[in-house]
Amino acid sequence: MAQIPPGVRLLASLNKDQWYRALTFVLTFLLYTSFHLSRKPISIVKSELHKNCSAIITSRDQDPSSLLLRSSSDCSWKPFDKKNYKQLLGTMDYSFLCAYAIGMYLSGIIGERLPIRLYLTAGMLSSGVFTCLFGLGYIYNIHSLSFYIFVQVVNGLVQTTGWPSVVTCIGNWFGKGRRGLIMGVWNSHTSVGNILGSLIAAHWVSSNWGLSFIIPGLIIMAMGGVCFLFLIEHPNDLRTMNAQSPGVQSVQTKCWSGAKGHTQVYLQYKDNKTQSCDTELLLPQDDTCIPAQPVMVVKSGAEPSAISFMGALRIPGVVEFSLCLLFAKLVSYTFLFWLPLYITKAAHLDAKRAGDLSTLFDVGGIVGGILAGVISDKLGKRATTCAVMLLLAAPTLYGFSMISQFGLGPTIGMLLVSGGLVNGPYALITTAVSADLGTHKSLKGNARALSTVTAIIDGTGSVGAALGPLLAGLLSASGWDKVFYMLMTADFLALLLLLRLVTKEMTSSKSGPISPVELKKH
């Protein structure tokens, strides 16, 4: 008899708890990948909205007299054919990111009070519609700046449904044990989405840039349907479903230690011991359940209200990490929205090649996010890990601004290193740190703060995300070196905001590796 393949043996060894954890991990990864995939096209299309057509005109038009009648921006897309095109493009970025920042503060509060699956599905479908609408501007020959700004504002608002929802789901399913590593790997969806969005947009940018938006828009809408069909918000949802299956009777009560008052189910076993499903992994491992006898159940506590905005701000560390993320995200989103255009100007590449090359920054970001998670798990010092990477990032950005002028090889190397150091702290704060603070011991078991805390941290960071591209648009008019000085200053300010927490971590006797035992305390 042939030996069973090792992969099959591995799959057979997984219990139902591990299967559903894996499903939630992969599904939320793909869902947020589609969010970033739909945000990326604008940075690729910028170089097509305004481009120098002299070379095209020279190759196609042999009449010198007709050449004098044309400007170098004749093939640009109105209204971005003017000399202030950088300011107009920056305004478009600012419209999206400002709406995103404002909406994020509200999104977390709303998300705590609505079913996450439905809330996230509605947001993804709406985002897909408005992403496609931007692309339809090309197909229907729309040249109104107000149209594009309106689409960006509304899209920014509906995209705020994504981050608090997926972080809450992943926080519900995974405890604190190895959270940095797990979320470091999981957070690579940001870079994967950027890479896929760049490749998809770059494929059509020179022939039909409308499709650079329409295809990502259709993808996020399709993923919204997948979210509606398969997303499981909390393990207790499955426990309830299983307890109500034929052959198993249950007595239910409200147990408010879980998020949103998920029903707590008690089962009676053959040894006449009634125990909570919280003592099981996720679902009964065998068929030892017998019909339950009447059991008196005492409510474990009163239902807590969802945490208020000010209550979330009082959680130790929320303010510092939020302000740090403001500057860290300013740097990251400046690269997200302006890197392809910078490569086009500095390396003299066309839009497609610049878009493809810019994906290396996100490849570095994947490695940086995972390394930040692993190191912070090992040391038990989240703030210190972020501070060291921020300290290294500033001189690396200066090196990138210098080396990128010396050819393709050095540019590739610096893109990878810069991506890792810039996105490492950003990834750690928005995932593991947010989840840690959302389940902080000061909350006394009230898990309903996770979405609100996540929204406050990411919302504050989004203020920086809005300012970065806007400032880049203004400063780049007088030279790209001014943009890099702004980015280095932002990194140093982010570092300064963490100094109190770093000092506390270094002097704390409790600092150390995060124990897997903490997983059981979640």
From TrEMBL:
InterPro entries: MFS, MFS_dom, MFS_trans_sf, SLC37A1_2, Sugar_P_transporter. The keyword Transport applies. Residues 27-506 form the Major facilitator superfamily (MFS) profile domain. Keywords: Membrane, Sugar transport, Transmembrane, Transmembrane helix, Transport. The keyword tRNA-binding does not apply. GO terms for cellular component: endoplasmic reticulum membrane. It catalyses: D-glucose 6-phosphate(in) + phosphate(out) = D-glucose 6-phosphate(out) + phosphate(in). GO terms for biological process: phosphate ion transmembrane transport. The chain crosses the membrane at residues 19-37, 88-110, 116-140, 185-205, 211-232, 318-339, 359-376, 388-408, 414-437, 449-471, 483-502. It holds the Pfam family MFS_1. Its main location: membrane. It is a multi-pass membrane protein. GO terms for molecular function: glucose 6-phosphate:phosphate antiporter activity. It is found in: Membrane. Belongs to the major facilitator superfamily. Organophosphate:Pi antiporter (OPA) (TC 2.A.1.4) family. This is Solute carrier family 37 member 1. The lineage of its organism: Eukaryota, Metazoa, Chordata, Craniata, Vertebrata.
